[in-house]
């Protein structure tokens, strides 16, 4: 609060219903002068921006879109507390900017009636005035402003019309004295609130009138639980007050909506002209097709195929380019630096970690491009509407569908896309199960193991190929497990009443390129900035565990003489030069494998061997699995190094993939002739990778979106446990059927 | 007494009451389904649930379970 008055000339809270263009207005007012943070303990973002107007600097707090200021959860309470200036970690607002949809005034003024009760100076922005006009709705703006007693500014935010007026209205509002609160409630109710207000004044932090009123209206008991009430029986007193009110024809909680909508009716009476019959708009006609029994479904499936293909396939060229770019940087660094641990750290640790962060950017950008377009044009709500019944069976709602579908391409944008789910329990469940969907990073693991161990034949003359079926089974394993986990979570840790599905289906409109672009850049930047450093740190740690301790002396003793002999033969340029070169290359791979096998991680692999033996794994597989914690696809490279075929394996390259497959098939248990891999081991390993949480970026994003390390740890533990059990069952059952 | 969930698709009605005192009742009221408000059942999702309503000039979607909370009379 001190910093707010010392360095800024005013603070404005930005509030409005969802789908009113609130973010467009925030972006239009603040441009790039905005920053995003977190509030502790809740999933609400703290979004602050600033604007200069008439030589002064205003700070804008963007509060989450809401239909009502009726806190029933910690997230909703936070919004109200910020608005009332009761948070020490957020500047106290001097005024409120309330955005309303001019084409949907009645419902939007409900929130305005609550805001006016706080007594804060208020500016009402009538956004989408053009849409209202096109529908033949005419609003007497000056009359409305007079009745509400606050400035009303008509806006067409996405065209930038009315913004100048809005700015100067804001500059005046922050100087305005507090308003006398207008209560739309009947006398009996106001009397009870006044009485309760006196009752609550005794506490250490007195409650403002608006919160006292909420306390009386909140029948869920949430606010009474949040209040300190000097040991007295507050819930009992509240019940008694509500009974008195019911007898006085003010039933709680219905009285609030009845009183406010009556107030809205009085405010609008005679000021709004509408066509006698509601015209059938373009939006209505589009909606008839898009929610149609048949066409609605067909178009939905098509839209989802496009989104999925985009994230799954269209992102690949850009990802390859980024991969190549990072590899090029690595080569350049190697050429410029003297060989040694410093160069290795920079290239294999830091640069590789950096590469593993930015490689996700194409997928994140593409997915959020589609999500932003679908959301801004109004289709996102229809997608939830179409899919709700299906998702209810998994204990979720229609809003979880798109995040989960995107997770089949990559869980990171999928988890980030759960922001549209307002219910905390639904959102957490979706975040926790999203990493179970088989993402594109699992494909290289499946591909290499299927190619090596699953025969190419099939049933019905090869039409139903075993290799394809195995791949399908892995996708199904992830999805079915996800449904199971969701159902268990909703009955245990995240138990609670089924949240209602009460969703506005907004009018369709053309998406604004500005809003879409902002959203994409915002998401991509949030990922790089917040997740990036941690992912690089994890990657460096795993690199160090594989790199140290150096076995220079043993390697010299074991490979030195042979290497010098080969080098001499290459230098001599006799007839066997080519063969000697090939053997030297092989020798280098063996040295690399030797080094890795005796590294800390290699030792850890031996150490956990008793744990992975029941899965049919030897310590080298255990080690490769440990090394793949930063990203599961790394297991392919680690297996390559550990089996002396090198780490640069492109699974799409038949020769390289064949070399690894051959090495895996030839691998024996140390000191015996028994082969490590057979079909049950390979299937078990695939099942492990289908369910495990071997992806540091996902865990970092889970922690960020759930705003808790606890949930990230939970995700890792439950997925690893399930993965272990699946591998165990597949291997043990497999060995009994077909060893 | 008729419930909103029992209306035929395309029919108009008027809200008489929302039953219950819990969060769901409160949300339905907040979204504008107060006694006396005209409402039209526009349709249902392809799988039969949720429903699409026209209320106070905007489109609102609710599940059948929630629509059963809303008592209506003839428009």
How is this fold's topology laid out?
The complex is a heterodimer of chains A (739) and B (75).
Chain A: H1 2-7, E1 11-16, H2 22-30, E2 34-38, E3 45-53, E4 56-62, H3 74-83, E5 95-101, H4 105-117, E6 122-127, H5 129-134, E7 138-139, H6 141-148, E8 152-154, H7 163-173, H8 187-200, H9 209-217, H10 222-226, H11 234-247, H12 254-268, E9 272-273, H13 282-290, H14 295-336, H15 341-358, H16 361-377, H17 379-392, H18 401-407, H19 411-416, H20 424-433, H21 443-453, E10 458-459, E11 464-465, H22 466-491, E12 502-505, H23 513-547, H24 552-572, H25 577-597, H26 600-607, H27 609-612, H28 619-627, H29 634-642, H30 654-666, H31 679-691, H32 696-706, H33 709-737
Parallel strand pairs in A: 1-4, 1-5, 5-6, 6-8
Antiparallel strand pairs in A: 2-3, 3-4, 7-9, 10-11
Helix pairs in contact in A: 4-12, 8-9, 14-15, 14-16, 15-23, 16-23, 20-22, 21-22, 21-30, 21-31, 22-31, 23-32, 24-25, 26-28, 28-29, 31-33, 32-33
Chain B: E1 2-3, E2 12-18, H1 23-30, E3 38-44, E4 51-55, E5 58-62, H2 64-67, E6 70-74
Antiparallel strand pairs in B: 1-6, 2-3, 2-6, 3-4, 4-5
């Amino acid at each position: 609060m001190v910093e707010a008055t010392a360095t800024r000339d005013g603070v404005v809270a930005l509030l409005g219903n969802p789908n009113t263009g609130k973010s467009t207005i925030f972006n239009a007012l603040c441009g790039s002068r905005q920053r995003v943070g977190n509030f502790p303990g809740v999933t609400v973002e703290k979004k602050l921006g600033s604007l200069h107007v008439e030589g002064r600097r205003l700070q804008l707090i963007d509060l989450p879109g809401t239909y009502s200021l009726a806190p029933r959860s910690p997230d909703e309470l936070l919004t109200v507390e910020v608005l009332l200036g009761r948070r020490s970690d957020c500047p106290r607002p001097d005024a409120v900017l309330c955005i309303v949809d001019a084409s949907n005034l009645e419902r939007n003024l409900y929130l305005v009636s609550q805001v006016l009760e706080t007594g804060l100076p208020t500016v009402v922005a009538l956004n989408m005035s053009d849409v209202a006009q096109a529908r033949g709705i005419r609003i007497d703006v000056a009359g409305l402003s007079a009745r509400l007693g606050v400035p009303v500014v008509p806006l067409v935010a996405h065209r930038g019309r009315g913004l100048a007026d809005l700015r100067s209205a804001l500059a005046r509002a922050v100087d305005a004295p507090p308003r006398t609160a207008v209560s739309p409630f009947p006398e009996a109710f106001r009397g009870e609130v006044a009485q309760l207000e006196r009752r609550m004044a005794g506490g250490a932090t007195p409650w403002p009138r608006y919160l006292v009123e909420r306390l009386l209206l909140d029948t869920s008991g949430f606010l009474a639980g949040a209040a300190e009430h000097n040991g007295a029986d507050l819930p009992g007193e509240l019940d008694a007050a509500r009974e008195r009110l019911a007898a006085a024809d003010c039933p709680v909680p219905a009285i609030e909506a009845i009183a406010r909508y009556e107030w809205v009716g009085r405010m609008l009476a005679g000021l709004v002209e509408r066509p006698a019959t509601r015209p059938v708009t373009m939006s209505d006609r589009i909606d008839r097709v898009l929610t149609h029994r048949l066409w609605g479904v067909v178009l939905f499936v098509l839209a989802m195929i496009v989104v999925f293909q985009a994230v799954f396939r269209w992102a690949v060229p850009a990802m390859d380019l980024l991969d190549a770019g990072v590899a090029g940087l690595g080569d350049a660094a190697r050429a410029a630096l003297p060989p040694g641990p410093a160069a290795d750290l920079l290239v294999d640790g830091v640069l590789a970690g950096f590469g593993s962060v930015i490689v996700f950017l194409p997928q994140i950008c593409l997915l959020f491009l589609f999500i932003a377009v679908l959301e801004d044009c109004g289709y996102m709500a229809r997608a939830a509407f179409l899919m709700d019944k299906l998702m209810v069976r998994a204990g979720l709602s229609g809003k979880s569908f798109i995040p989960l579908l995107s997770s089949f391409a990559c869980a990171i944008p999928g988890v980030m896309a759960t922001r549209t789910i307002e219910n905390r329990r639904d959102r957490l469940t979706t975040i926790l199960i999203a990493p179970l969907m088989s993402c594109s990073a699992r494909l290289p693991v499946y591909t290499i193991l299927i190619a090596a161990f699953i025969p190419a034949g099939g049933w019905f003359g090869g039409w139903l190929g075993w290799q394809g079926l195995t791949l399908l089974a892995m996708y199904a394993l992830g999805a079915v497990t996800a449904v199971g986990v969701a159902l268990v979570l909703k009955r245990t840790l995240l138990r609670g009443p089924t949240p209602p599905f009460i969703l506005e289906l907004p009018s369709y409109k053309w998406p604004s390129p500005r809003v879409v672009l902002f959203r994409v850049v915002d998401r991509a930047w949030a990922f790089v900035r917040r997740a990036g450093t941690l992912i690089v740190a994890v990657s460096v740690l795993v690199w160090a565990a594989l790199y140290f301790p150096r076995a220079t002396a043993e390697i010299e003793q074991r490979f030195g003489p042979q290497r010098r002999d080969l080098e001499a033969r290459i230098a001599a340029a006799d007839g066997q030069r080519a063969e000697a070169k090939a053997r030297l290359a092989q020798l280098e791979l063996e040295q690399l494998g030797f080094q890795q096998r005796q590294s800390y991680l290699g030792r850890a692999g031996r150490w956990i061997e008793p744990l992975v033996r029941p899965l049919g794994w030897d310590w080298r597989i255990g080690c490769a699995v440990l090394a793949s914690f930063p990203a599961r696809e790394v297991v392919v490279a680690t297996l390559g190094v550990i089996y002396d075929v090198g780490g640069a394996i492109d699974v799409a390259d038949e020769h390289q993939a064949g070399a690894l497959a051959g090495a895996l098939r030839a691998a024996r248990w140390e000191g015996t002739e028994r082969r490590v891999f057979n079909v049950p081991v390979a299937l078990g390993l695939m099942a492990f990778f289908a369910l495990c949480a071997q992806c540091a970026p996902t865990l970092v994003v889970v922690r960020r979106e759930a705003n808790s390390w606890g949930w990230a740890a939970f995700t890792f533990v439950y997925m690893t446990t399930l993965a272990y059990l699946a591998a165990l069952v597949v291997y043990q059952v497999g060995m009994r059927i077909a060893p | 007494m008729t419930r909103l969930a029992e209306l035929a698709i395309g029919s108009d009605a008027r809200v008489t009451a929302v039953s219950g005192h819990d969060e769901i009742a409160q949300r339905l009221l907040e979204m504008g389904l107060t006694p006396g408000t005209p409402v039209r059942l526009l349709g249902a999702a392809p799988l039969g649930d949720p429903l699409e309503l026209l209320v106070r000039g905007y489109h609102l979607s609710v599940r059948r379970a929630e629509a059963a909370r809303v008592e209506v009379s003839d428009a």
